[in-house]
């Protein structure tokens, strides 16, 4: 049911005939809805809003959805989709916690613009800085190690020290 609802939201947004920016967290493991992740989404939205202001653009429409699989935000933005993708990658790579953001840009279809089709670098692993997809495919790092690293960095960013999660 949740997948049908997500599909419906994307389809509704695509009717606006402008690019859609979808924001969620890039988090492994079974726990996807956590107060740190919701705070992180807010930090990401703030970075996107600031990026749009610098480009003299603004949001046309925003929808925030809370699921057990995590918070998802859909934004309609009347701006070139490839420019939005470059901005998204800039945020993912340069924001203090940007490595944990998953910002996808859709242009008049249900396929997101990939980093590779824009000749942008692949995401790096938060543990070893190798290609993140390769580390994920080979399960180079345990989910517990990944989640503890992510939560520790988020706690540091938000000023709450560190915590350890036992899976």
What does the model show?
The chain is an alpha+beta fold and 167 residues long. It has a single domain, classed as Ribosomal protein S6/Translation elongation factor EF1B (Alpha-Beta Plaits). Helix content is 42%, strand content 17%. It contains five helices and four strands, in the order H-E-H-E-E-H-E-H-H. The chain has helices spanning 2-14, 35-54, 81-94, 132-138, 143-158, and strands at residues 20-25, 59-67, 70-77, 101-106. Strands 2-3-1-4 form a four-stranded antiparallel sheet, sandwiched between helices. Helix 2 (35-54) crosses helix 5 (143-158).
Total domain modules: 1
Query: Percent of residues in helical segments?
Result: 40-55%
- Report the total helices: 5
Rg, Cα atoms, Å: 16 Å
Mean pLDDT: 86
CATH architecture: 2-Layer Sandwich
Count the strands?
4
Order of helices and strands: HEHEEHEHH
Largest sheet: 4 strands, antiparallel
Identify the CATH homologous superfamily.
Ribosomal protein S6/Translation elongation factor EF1B
Low-confidence segments, given as residue ranges, are 162-167
First CA to last CA: what distance? 27 Å
**Global geometry:** globular
Classified by CATH, the class is Alpha Beta
At the third CATH level, what is the topology name? Alpha-Beta Plaits
Find the structural class using helix and strand composition.
alpha+beta
| Strand portion | 15-25%
